[in-house]
Amino acid sequence: MAHVEPVGAASTIPAPATDLPRQRSAFDRDRWLTGAGVLLAVALLIVTVALPVGALVGQSFFDRAGAFVGLANFARYAENPALVRSAFNSVWLSVVSAVLCTGIAYVYAYGLTLSCMRGKGLLRAIALIPLLAPSLLPAISLVYLFGNQGVFKGWLGDVSIYGPLGIVLGSVFWTLPHALLILTTAMATSDGRLYEAAQTLGASRWRIFRTVTLPASRYGLIVAGMVVFVLVITDFGVPKVVGGQTGVLATDIYKQVVGQQNFQMGAVVGFVLLIPAVLSFLVERRVRRRQAAALSARATPHVPEPVPARDRALLAACVLIASCIVVMIGMAVFASLATYWPYKLTPSLKNYDFSNMDGGGWGSYFNSLRLAVCAALAGAIATFVSAYLVEKPRHFGLLREGLNLLANLPLAVPGLVLGVGYIFFFNSPSNPLRGLYGGLAILVICTVAHFFSVAHLTSLTALRQLDREYELVSESMGVPFWRTLWRVHLPVALPTVFNVAGYFFVNAMTTVSAVVFLYSPQTTLAAIAVLNMDDAGDVAPAAAMASLIMLTAAIGRGVFALAGRSTLARTQAGRNR
């Protein structure tokens, strides 16, 4: 009787000797192709991030004629009282904003994660709205609320909104969602066993907060504070609109480069701005590692119990904060619809007739839309490929570590510094890529490079969900790596790819700092148009353009989120059983 081989047994039979050279050849081919891919990715990141930053740093040691002058430019900077005062203003305003924003976000995050208050979903959604708006929008809202013709101009007495107060208020508003996301993540990982032990020992709620909640979230507090500090010290929009005579480093770079064409001093200011950003990045990385090491595999999620007095107090605080956010957003939208502020408040679309406004028209809006779509597609593909090359190949370990380091470098580079670096690098007569300067392509490249790190880390997290056994089985069967990538890795990571695309879309629509030095008359952007219209005195049209940017960002983010959710349902239905 003939022996019948069971179904599937063929996969356990060793490959014939004649197949071994072919499998070895395919393995070598895959290894060298992935190595070439890693080299190409490293080269692209060097060109788009490292070399522009290096060009800025190097330019600070040369004069206008191109002669090396050492630290002479820095000495001139130190001798200029206005520039030194700007550096001091940037630091203390950023510290104040970070402390206030982190404190407010902590209360809000505590209510969302560690209480039983009602309306958590709505309150969370409201708190994240500022992510969709450029930083110019809260500044414009402050003008309409507390400016010379503001609704509540009498509330501040003799204190002007044009100065430190306006910078702090506007900065706290637009950085609040960033701190909130970090703190809610930190508090959501609280170990329920510690709370149970404290309650069993009869500890009071205040003692539990001091000895359990606060220590468990201290790393999140530090990271949130550092992130807000960097965002504020490198922001250009808020101080440009409501800074008044208060100089900061971000506006100094703009004045030196655009206003005075003093690129060397602009490079010096950029170098100075790079120092606190890099230090904050290093501290944040160290804190994140310590936080990861503190997490226990045996930890259980904490389920909060209802405490009526606490929950009502937290609800009142969160409603107050959410109301301030709604007022800020609503005031900008209302001002954009008012016919003639403050004398004729009848709603109309007159302010949306951008073709008749100085500083930017509808062309700027459509340029931003094209930029956002291109950045979403290019950024999602580039970050997924970079994450794959870091995580999945088993060879060229040192080169892959270098790629991961370069992919994280943009986290430490402010957008303004990167933008000025692009001027020095891509506009150099000796650079063969000089033809990109002034076109839409350079804006796409700069935007993707600026926001690369967060998207790369997100894609890396998604790919790490897959066991390495997939690659080992594919190699043993002689399956090319690109087929495994297409059939296994991409379907699992596709929902994350769509979310990353939405991240790039929103940031490309709202960013100002990274592209304010790179646009041409043919490639003006919507966020730049807001800035130019405000400079021209067209504040209401500026509010209209900012509102349109926010609406477009919300729609784009929603489309990518729906695509990600639909893909998740189709490609990973088994995980939802």
Ordered list of secondary-structure elements with their pairings:
Blueprint: H1 20-59, H2 72-79, H3 81-113, H4 120-127, H5 136-146, H6 164-188, H7 192-200, H8 205-233, H9 237-242, H10 249-259, H11 263-294, H12 308-337, E1 338-340, E2 344-347, H13 362-391, H14 397-408, H15 415-426, H16 440-450, H17 452-463, H18 469-476, H19 481-510, H20 526-535, H21 539-571
CATH architecture label of the largest domain: Orthogonal Bundle
N-to-C SSE string, H for helix and E for strand: HHHHHHHHHHHHEEHHHHHHHHH
Total separate domains:
2
Approximate strand percentage: under 5%
Tell me the total number of β-strands: 2
Overall geometry comes to globular
Helix content: 55-70%
For the largest sheet, list the strands in their spatial order.
Answer: 1-2
Name the structural class: mainly alpha
Q: What is the oligomer described by this structure?
A: single chain
Number of helical segments? 21
Low-confidence stretches: 1-18
Q: What is the rounded distance between the termini?
A: 44 Å
- Mean pLDDT comes to 82
Rg calculated over all Cα atoms: 26 Å
The CATH topology annotation of the largest domain reads as MetI-like fold
Structural write-up:
- There is one protein chain.
- The protein is built from 21 helices and 2 strands.
- It is mostly helical and 577 residues long.
- The chain folds into 2 domains: 41-59 and 354-577, MetI-like fold (Orthogonal Bundle), CATH 1.10.3720; 80-348, MetI-like (MetI-like fold, Orthogonal Bundle), CATH 1.10.3720.10.
- A two-stranded antiparallel ribbon has the order 1-2.
- A hairpin with a 3-residue loop joins strand 1 (338-340) and strand 2 (344-347).
- Helix 3 crosses helix 12 and helix 19 (481-510) runs antiparallel to helix 21.
- The radius of gyration is 26 Å and the shape is globular.
- The model is unreliable at 1-18 (pLDDT under 50).
